[in-house]
Amino acid sequence: MSIIVLHSQKYSFLCFLFCLSCAVTALFYFFYQATVHIFVATPVRCMETCHCYYSIQSKMNVMNCSTTNPSGLPNSLLPETDWFHMSGGNVSHLCHVPTHFQSLKRIVLKNNSIKSFCQPFVEALRKVHLDFLDLSGNNLTKLPRKFEEMHFINSLNLSNNNFVCSCDIIWMIDWINNFTTSKGERIVRDFKDVKCHTGQKVGTPIYLLDSTKLHCFPPEFAIWKIAVIATVGALLLLSSIVTVVIIKRSREVRWIIYKNLGKLIRARHQPNVDHLEYDAFLSYRLVKFLISTNHCQSAGDCRCICGLSVPSHQRKQLW
């Protein structure tokens, strides 16, 4: 019996040592994960206005710049940053592209004041392979059409923005409904909360809109319509100018027509008799010439004016 008891105590001690070594190994591994992979927010490795750390749950290096109410993106990200978080700030325009931007896998920019994107930022965003992009809670009224070409985004949040449901978002209807991952899931995950804030169909989710009921026309039709309106407006303006000139200079107009077409337009006080013919039509220059040379007393002296002959070398100057 004593031999059996000794052997059992020996095995119990060995089991205790084995369990102790396992516990020490587990603790060592935990501290290794919690210390070796952490990069602390120091002035050398991280911006003073940001907080940098390693997330054990997501296994990502996180750079959180949400604590100081930022007004723009930082100039540079840490080379090993996987997840950039900046929410609750006053960012209104996304133009600047930080260095090391292409290494990101997640971008959270929710609850800012983002209104628009500049072309450099959109182009940079197209080249990033993102697992998640959060733009919810901003002041976006529309998205750049380039979002149709962003095939490297697996998940996107757009809810609680100020989208204006007009002709500019027709493409978004089809995009939200058909922009899916390889598994067939909608990439815009919160599509039911992406609604019209102003414009037509206020409060309606964009994915439920019917593009045929937004009363929109293709761009080429708009150009054609503008061209027609401009042409009609120019013609109306020209006709108005001509009308004013005819009214103000009716006598001169009658003389020009007679001189060039050989037809005399009678004044209103003259009888409209077809058989009447006119042998001559005196210009105002001729009458003024006759009066100035004392050939006639006044323009009303018709016998004097009509009975005089004008030298041939002066006719072109007076008519």
Here the CATH topology of the largest domain equals Leucine-rich repeat, LRR (right-handed beta-alpha superhelix)
Give the biggest beta sheet.
6 strands, mixed
Number of strand segments: 10
The secondary-structure class comes to: alpha/beta
- Anisotropy-based shape: elongated
CATH class of the largest domain: Alpha Beta
Poorly predicted regions are 1-7, 31-44, 275-280, 299-310, 312-319
- Would you identify the CATH architecture of the largest domain? Alpha-Beta Horseshoe
Calculate the mean pLDDT score and round it.
76
Number of domains: 3
- The helix content is 25-40%
Give the C-alpha Rg. 44 Å
- According to CATH, the homologous superfamily of the largest domain is Ribonuclease Inhibitor
- Please indicate the percent range of residues in DSSP E strands (runs of 2 or more): 5-15%
Number of helices: 8
Distance between the termini: 154 Å
Strand order of the largest sheet: 1-2-3-5-7-8
The helix-strand sequence is HEEEEEEHEEEHEHHHHH
Describe this structure in words.
- The radius of gyration is 44 Å and the shape is elongated.
- The longest helix is centred in the first third of the chain and has 34 residues, at 2-35.
- It has three domains: 1-36; 50-213, Alpha-Beta Horseshoe (Leucine-rich repeat, LRR (right-handed beta-alpha superhelix)); 282-319, no CATH class.
- Helix content is 36%, strand content 9%.
- With 319 residues, the chain is an alpha/beta fold.
- The chain is built from eight helices and ten strands.
- The chain starts with a helix and ends with a helix.
